């Protein structure tokens, strides 16, 4: 049996190694037009910034290693030009010699990855100070440019994972950095109520963030001398990084009739086989499906690519492994913040037709006497089944541990009530006695059963409609005086029992504090006093910052 794999990095090499572990009888050949085949793509920004000492640390395995260890024939600098699937032949070009030749296969695997989307204004342009983080080679070129030219200013186009990571690394090297983003906020899939914290970190670190602004005109020949933005601003930076998303490299696959899915990536079954028998697709070129909804999703991640490669290699050699979908889990560090998410966002859950309960839970990763620091956890649950649908977390430390717990529990279909009963490890250097995960379960359980929560978006919508309601700020007088939600009256928790007699029990009532604990206590008091509809406002800190950032009416008297 002859297997040809087109493409390498995480997915292609995983196919090869798993196939070899399953059988010694297969002849395995891998073609890749790049010079490096197995490398840590996600480490490239850190090598550019010098945090990783040498790019060689990101390329631990070469063609010789794969031949000696797994008896896999790896050919770098070889481009597969075309495929005759009826004859099961590929036409390959050696990019070093110019020679072309044919090779035959029994099974074919597409691991052709994805390419950056290049903004239209930069297409068919070649500026020596404009870069995209594509592979090891591109990373080395960026690093060499920085070392040789010592740029002082940089513009990063795009505020997703790579854009933020590159902005961090460039700023750390002393460059003045501007980040442009097409949408209103960085990491736009997070939603403004979480992304606003990323904007705060940008300001704290001295990075300019320009929302809803793109480059529409470029000027220069070999060097980009200036760029005009959609807001009419003229930028004159020494260095530009384009980080505007990726698209799957599907042209070779579609040339032989491979079907694409709804997302534009290659559609496969759970064995990663395409619509053509004996033809597989893995990694960033392939479509995934969501664990919760079962619907197609395209989230190119190294973890998914590795997983797909292993599954395809096992399945094509008679193994039982099958792809079980993804949650789109992701994480990155941005200066003093760790930013992570898994599962459905609130927006996605609503679009899927779920009636959701949304909680903003602010809890430290460990006790304050052990230097614990607050994390903001946004959790989304289904009101009907109480299943956890998605979680986003932003904080300075402890985020990675919690997001992995949530990803595990969501995969297993855990309900809000179950989070409290999980037997998580505790010692003061690592967590609080009731971990933030358990607190999330407690608060969501209350919200789903007896103590409903209201989100900042819902409150703002009610205010815009001039809905009659009583808003009670249960914090201290000092906190209320510093900033409070428009229309809120101040009744500290300690005085609420006595002063509740002066309030209308039939009117919609919303209570809040800073983290939600005193708000929940106030909500319980009013419920027991006979108030008909009482909500605890979740995410108060976020709504106040949002109102301040938008320069709405003064929040203080």
UniProtKB/TrEMBL annotation:
Keywords: FAD, Flavoprotein, Oxidation, Oxidoreductase, Redox-active center. Residues 465-549 form the Rhodanese domain. InterPro entries: FAD-bd_OxRdtase, FAD/NAD-bd_sf, FAD/NAD-binding_dom, FAD/NAD-linked_Rdtase_dimer_sf, Pyr_nucl-diS_OxRdtase_dimer, Rhodanese-like_dom, Rhodanese-like_dom_sf, Thiosulphate_STrfase_CS. The keyword Lipid metabolism does not apply. Pfam families: Pyr_redox_2 (PF07992), Pyr_redox_dim (PF02852), Rhodanese (PF00581). GO terms for molecular function: oxidoreductase activity; thiosulfate-cyanide sulfurtransferase activity. The keyword RNA-binding does not apply. Its cofactor is FAD. PROSITE patterns: RHODANESE_1, RHODANESE_3. Belongs to the class-III pyridine nucleotide-disulfide oxidoreductase family. This is FAD-dependent oxidoreductase.
